Design the sequence.
C-alpha cells in the first residue's frame, strides 16, 4: 500500500522568512495530494491540494509543487506570520476505490518566531 | 468544520468497556471516514463508509467496528477498549476529492 514520508518533523523560521515542507510517496498510482493545517485542539483544515495533472498550484502565500517522476511534493509558505504556527500534514490518495482514502505523513510542527 | 459534529468530545473509560463515538453531518455527504491520530503517525484510517449500510476497513481496523444506518450518522464502536486505543479520533466527510474533518474526540482508556 501507499506510504508517505514527511520532512522535517519540526521547523522553526523567523517571521517573514519562507518555510518548505517536503513529502515523498511510494505508490505511482496516487493522483491527489492535499495539505492540512492543524491548530491545537482542532481538526485538520484543508489548506491546499494538487492533482497529478498539474505541477504547481498557488494560493496567496502558500504553494504546492508536485514531481510525479520523483514521487515527491512540497508545501511552500512565503512571508511567514506567527499565525502560521501549527502542525502541517501532507497526504496522498489514488482515489481509485470507493471514496478517497488518504494516507498521511507524520506531520511537521512549524514554529514562526516573531 | 463542514457541518460535522462529533460526540462526545472527551471520554475517559476503563479497559474492557465498550465505547461508541458518534459522527454527525448535516450536508448529505455520501462518504464518511474515521481516523485516529497518534504522535509520530499522523492520521490513520480506521473504517470508511460509501453509503448507508456500506462500510469497509481501513489501515488500522482491528478492534473497531462501524455502522451507518442513516446518511447523517457514522458510529465507531470499540467493543472492548484497550489502552492502545487511547487516541484522538477524527471523523471526516468527502466532497469530490476534498476531505473535511470534524473537531475530534479525545478518548483515554485507563
Sequence:
Amino acid at each position: 500500500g501507499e506510504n508517505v514520508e514527511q520532512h522535517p518533523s519540526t521547523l522553526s523560521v523567523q517571521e517573514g522568512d519562507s518555510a518548505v515542507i517536503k513529502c515523498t510517496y511510494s505508490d505511482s498510482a496516487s493522483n491527489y495530494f492535499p495539505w492540512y493545517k492543524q491548530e491545537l485542539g482542532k481538526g485538520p483544515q484543508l489548506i491546499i491540494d494538487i492533482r497529478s495533472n498539474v505541477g504547481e498550484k498557488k494560493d496567496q502565500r502558500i504553494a504546492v509543487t508536485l514531481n510525479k517522476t520523483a514521487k515527491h511534493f512540497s508545501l511552500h509558505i512565503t512571508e511567514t506570520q506567527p499565525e502560521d504556527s501549527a502542525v502541517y500534514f501532507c497526504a496522498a490518495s489514488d482515489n481509485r476505490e470507493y471514496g478517497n482514502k488518504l494516507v498521511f505523513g507524520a506531520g511537521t510542527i512549524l514554529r514562526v518566531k516573531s | 468544520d463542514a457541518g460535522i459534529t462529533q460526540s462526545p468530545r472527551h471520554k475517559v473509560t476503563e479497559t474492557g468497556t465498550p465505547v461508541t463515538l458518534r459522527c454527525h453531518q448535516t450536508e448529505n455527504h455520501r462518504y464518511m471516514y474515521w481516523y485516529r491520530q497518534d504522535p509520530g503517525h499522523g492520521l490513520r484510517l480506521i473504517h470508511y463508509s460509501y453509503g448507508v449500510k456500506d462500510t469497509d476497513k481501513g489501515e488500522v481496523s482491528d478492534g473497531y467496528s462501524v455502522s451507518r444506518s442513516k446518511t447523517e450518522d457514522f458510529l465507531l464502536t470499540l467493543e472492548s477498549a484497550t489502552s492502545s486505543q487511547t487516541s484522538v479520533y477524527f471523523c471526516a466527510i468527502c466532497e469530490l476529492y476534498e476531505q473535511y474533518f470534524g473537531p475530534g474526540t479525545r478518548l483515554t482508556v485507563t
About this structure: The interface with chain A takes residues 1, 30-31, 33, 40-45, 48, 50, 54, 56, 58-59, 90, 94, 97-104 of chain B (CB under 8 Å). The radius of gyration of chain B is 13 Å. The CA atoms of residues 21 and 76 of chain B lie 5 Å apart. The longest strand of chain B covers residues 42-51.
